[in-house]
UniProtKB/TrEMBL annotation:
UniProt similarity note: Belongs to the AIR carboxylase family. Class I subfamily.
GO terms, molecular function: 5-(carboxyamino)imidazole ribonucleotide mutase activity; lyase activity
Organism this protein belongs to: Pseudoramibacter porci
Catalysis: reaction(s): 5-carboxyamino-1-(5-phospho-D-ribosyl)imidazole + H(+) = 5-amino-1-(5-phospho-D-ribosyl)imidazole-4-carboxylate
A GO biological-process term: 'de novo' IMP biosynthetic process
The protein's name in its UniProt record: N5-carboxyaminoimidazole ribonucleotide mutase
Residues annotated for substrate binding in this entry: S10, D13, R40
Pathway note: Purine metabolism; IMP biosynthesis via de novo pathway; 5-amino-1-(5-phospho-D-ribosyl)imidazole-4-carboxylate from 5-amino-1-(5-phospho-D-ribosyl)imidazole (N5-CAIR route): step 2/2
Listed HAMAP family: PurE_classI
InterPro entries: PurE_ClassI, PurE_dom, PurE_prokaryotes
Length: 165
């Protein structure tokens, strides 16, 4: 079974990260959720990142705001793919978080989703995992078909409203 670690820098990130957790559960991915701070307990973070592969994680999702070093620090200590979720802050709507995560040096990539884009982080993780797990590939295809049907339903609703005028 596919296994993903979801790490947040603070419990204040949980409301955003919950969307990621829910999406991973939708795809029946095994999840380990933790609060580990890059700044307040860096030794624990280093141990986590350095042992993540041997613990069976295949993708790590890390959410952080403000001085959002968490995803980058993890990426610097593991060969696993890391997906960063920038958390919205009071500074420019989370642009500080976004820039902290997306501006990584060569050799230490972090895939970065939109500010508060937790659901997309989960979907990207599932897409990465689908290379190894064919059942996840099929589940992603079905999910994308659901999205297509939702848009068609919305379009039909709008067209009906226009025809009433």
């Amino acid at each position: 079974m596919a296994k993903v670690a979801v790490i947040m820098g603070s419990d204040s990130d949980f409301d955003v990260v919950k969307k990621c957790i829910d999406m991973l559960k939708k795809f029946d991915v095994e999840i380990d959720v933790r609060v580990i701070s890059a700044h307040r307990n860096p030794r624990e973070l280093a141990i986590f990142a350095q042992t993540a592969e041997e613990k069976g994680y295949e993708v790590i999702i890390a959410a952080a705001g403000k001085a959002a070093h968490l995803p980058g620090v993890i990426a610097g200590s593991t060969p696993l793919p890391v997906i960063g979720i920038p958390i919205k802050t009071s500074l420019e709507g989370g642009m500080d978080s976004l820039f902290s995560i997306v501006q990584m040096p060569t050799g230490i990539p972090v895939a970065t989703v939109a500010v508060n884009g937790a659901a997309n982080a989960a979907i990207l993780a599932v897409q990465i995992l689908s290379v190894k797990y064919p059942e996840l590939r099929e589940a992603i295809k079905a999910y994308k078909q659901e999205l297509d049907e939702e848009v068609k339903t919305k379009n039909a609703r709008v067209q009906a409203l226009l025809n009433e005028e």
